[in-house]
Amino acid sequence: MPMTKKKINLFFTALKITNDIFAVALSFYLAYRMKFRWMLHVSDISAYPDVYIDMYLKILWLLVFIWIFSFIVSGLYKQYGGPLQWMNEITAIGKGAIFATMLTFAFTYAFQGLPQSRYVIIYSLPVAFLILVISHWFINKIKKSSSVIILAIRKRSLLE
Fold this sequence. Notes:
Blueprint: H1 5-36, H2 51-74, H3 85-110, H4 118-159
């Protein structure tokens, strides 16, 4: 069964969504560590036991859902073409991350049971942006090289 361009795009879009789920989760974990363990804006580290991470882990599914929804709305998973396709993707990552951060703030205000650390939410924005830009760059490189390999195989089979 030959790999069509549509199937390749679908596969790599699913790969990006899966990547983004893990990247967002990792960014919130690192943001938590920045706030509560690496003592950024914290004067007494012993006042914050590791139990606070449990509050974030319990709602991580909601945070990931908010972020993936924001990426879909921002157009991150569209297939961009042309000479500026990478810049369009970086812009979509930035728009989605900012929108997700605003939605996360709105949810923490609306539902008082959620963790209230604004610093963790703010720190997650640049951390997620950096992780997502780097990982999407790698995925796009793999996609580009796999497309070249598939085209070479097709050309070879047509010549035979």
